[in-house]
Amino acid sequence: FSVVAAKRAHDGTQTQCVVPRQSQCAGNRHSGVCGRRDCERISKNERETRLTQLQLAIYLVSGNINQYVSRSRRSVDMHSHSTESDGDRTVEEQIDLAQSIGLQSLWITDHDMIRDLQRTREIQKYAKAKGVAVGFGVEITVDWEKKEHHLLGYFPDSLWEGRTLSEPMQALQRACAEVKSSRETRNGKLVSYLNKLLQSPKGKVYFSGPVEAARFRPLSVAEVAAWARDNANLLEPSSLGRPHFSKFLLQVSNVRSELVFGPRDGDGIALMDSEGNVFFGDKKSGKQGDELEALMHSATLARKGIAFEPLPIKEAIALINKAHGRAVVAHIPTLGPSWFDRFGPLLGDLKQAGLWGIEAFSSEINEANHIRVHQLAQKNGLQMTGGSDNHGTLKVYAKLGQMHRDGDIAYEELEQWARNGGRQSYNVQHDL
Description:
Helix content: 25-40%
Number of strands: 13
Largest sheet: 8 strands, mixed
Radius of gyration: 23 Å
Oligomer: single chain
Order of helices and strands: HEEHEHEHEEHHHHEEEHEHEHHEHEH
């Protein structure tokens, strides 16, 4: 997409049909002129998308990120969680909030679960009454080159219209249930690790002060689950996750907030100086002090062998595709400081395995990393999606509807595909 074309689109001097050339129009290959509603001349949203591409071109020339990044309100959030996994708002509460902040569409992508038809239809009915288009997906815990990560799966509305879930969808449901059940084993190991560290002399520095350290008493999974049920809307023990443990450590155990998670895109290793100041990443340079680890950081838990039993990423992609869904790698920069060099080159292989997209706009992805994700998407022919990764109030930085950049054409395309049973989909080999 050229800078000149982007400018013309923004100025409104270039008009054309926005339906992708690969899609079908009235049974014929799309010619750019037809009477379909989705073949209207270029819309305001499309002009804004193309302006963003113009801004990208300006950035690539000037290096000025402020000329590239736009922060206007989003109308679609494609990554959110509820109390049915590890969020603290019910699905209905998320839909209510989506309506109140002006979201036109919300995707529910709870961890390692596929809902049954009855519950799915309850949610659809509620969302319709609120005027919010709701989409259903899943965020699967996967193993990618011996590192735990997340893979998003998105599904069209037609999959929920039958009397029962399709056999491929039931197979995916069973696979997700097995991953979710391994969470309970992980939680037991997590409690043992926390108790051992926080009761040791080294663990005293994790607390807000010496009084709080002296008051600490050993945790149990049952205690944290009971507290989360009353204070974080936990529905079932199998959904107890790191956000719940983190909130418990902060509010009950009085652990220092910066030592619970730490920066998401780092290695979880901090340095504490003699005055008790904590530094992560590049901020450790030139500082003297003791090393310690953020308690709940994924890299910390990986080093301790505290993890789920995730699905191999290619197996998860295959299951999503067989169920007529679309597979998207979530927030790839959270794989650590070397994510671009280590995992970027592997995306082409995943594309061959059936990967459709990569999450490019997220509360987990800053502006600089967004540029790099954009480059990888372009290089590998992947669609760019986005979502807040909101967990209710459990991730204070991940607010519903807020991402680090405006929507992309993939938003509109995925919405069109989802609402029309996949019949208008393109750039994917597993259409319905």
